[in-house]
Amino acid sequence: MTTYNTLPDxxxxxxxxxxxxxxxxLELPIIELPATDGRRIDLSALSGLTVxxxxxxxxxxxxxxxxxxxxxxxARGCTPQSCAFRDHFADLKGAGVEHVFGLSLQDTxxxxxxxxxxxxxxxxxxxxxxxxxxxxxxxxxxVEGALLLKRITLIIEEGAISHVFYPVFPPDRNAxxxxxxxxxxxx
Length: 187
Description:
This protein is of the alpha/beta class. It has helices at 78-87, 89-94, 108-117, 131-136, 174-185; strands at residues 32-34, 40-42, 49-54, 97-104, 124-126, 140-143, 146-149, 152-157, 160-165.
């Protein structure tokens, strides 16, 4: 049986393909994304420090993963990554983060199940129309005909990307890596 809460051993690590090198310093366009809490979020308009972790897709317990999912570098681990951001949420707020969001190309209805099941204290954003993805050229890949985001985490300050974590591996350590980066900056 597949478990989504832990990462299997031997997952292939993604390599930096340069697909995110244009993002640091980029000012975000005005694009409103639907959130699982019912709001529409324009990342370019948020004040303070924002963390957005983008992930390919979350699986549903009892449903199979796409064929070969574990062999795709960086694909597996959306649930452990989300749980890590949930578990470090108070620490992130304590480090000065005003907003935390997960981001995928899945629709809000699908994401709402995940946010509820994992008890996330922050909303997930849907870019199901690929507006933000195409506008800022987020790294993507395709599986079984579906376009998916590569795992990437953006630190956004006053509407501009100040730091990028890419590639993200292992995904369950991403929140701790973001915290370490923020603590290093505050010294």
